[in-house]
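hiii, so i know i said id send this last week but things got crazy w the move. better late than never?? heres the sequnce for the chain we talked about at the cafe, plus the structure i predicted for it. fair warning i was half asleep when i ran it
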Amino acid sequence: ANAPSTPGARSQFANLPACVALIADLVDKDPDRAFEISASPQDLVQELLLLLCDRDKQRKALLTPGHIQLTAFSQLAASSTSTSYPVSLLSATGFHQMDVDHINDHPLVKVRGNEFEFAYEFLDPYFKAQLLATWLKSPNTVISSDAMGVMLANSNGRSSVIEHLAGLCSDTTSSEIAKLAQSIDWKGYTSAKSFLLHLILALADERKASHRERAAVISEISGKQEKIIDNITFVGTFSRLDLRGYSVSHCVFSDCTFSDIGIDSSTHFEHCRFEGEISIDVKNWKLAGAKNNSADSLAAIVCGFLLDDNVNKNREILLDAFSIALQKFWHNGNPRRS
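okay and structure toks below
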């Protein structure tokens, strides 16, 4: 029952060298004291990171408080898709200039020349998730372009950012997230809304939601009536949804994989767009109603049955398929070499 979800002693946060050193320091100061962690489970990592930063401040007589150090790391992580950052940017995000010269042996970073990266792989996605959690827990805060950028970069749901964020926001309801989603101007960031879909589905998994309940939280993001999914961009893998009786309209499906989804003749797709690589492993998908949908050449090969006037489009789809195959395997009259 107490086995860690991630195998291997070195992969557990409590076994990281910096964390072990912190515990050793606490014991050395007062070996008879019983230490208690006041944080809730979802904030435990945050409190340990803060203790590490405060310990470094005390050890080196730094001027930058621990919580400011963490804020600086979160802002840098969210501002770039890179995993290395110029040391000089630390002073611009909150570090005192004098402290930047002593960053070399900070427990949370590794410095190489004029750049640094985080000492542990989980820290970069964790700091990104922390920035988003601050926004989600402060409904009146305007979302920053950095936060939007994080959601856009992780819109396919395959990043551990969502896993960390689900842990940090385990007490946040799908209704609260839906309300925030409806208050945002998504212009220029439409794919970012897919990130919130993956988040609310991850939270639904935590409470072991049924296929029907999982579909309902997606409908909630739309802000429409029950069983209506409207104006959402889907990116990535979506499964375990019961869409029977649903109307799906004005949605974009980009590089999507669908599996284990309940669909029948009461499911309707209207004014939807299918783009990129689409994979469908769903029984009865062809029973769904379709009206005024469109697809690019690649998606049309798989989704042709959802397009209007399928008979007349078969020739176009076949020609597009040959064109794509030739581009991939043929070059200047000869087979393309790998």
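btw The CA atoms of residues 233 and 252 lie 5 Å apart. thought thatd interest u
miss u guys!!
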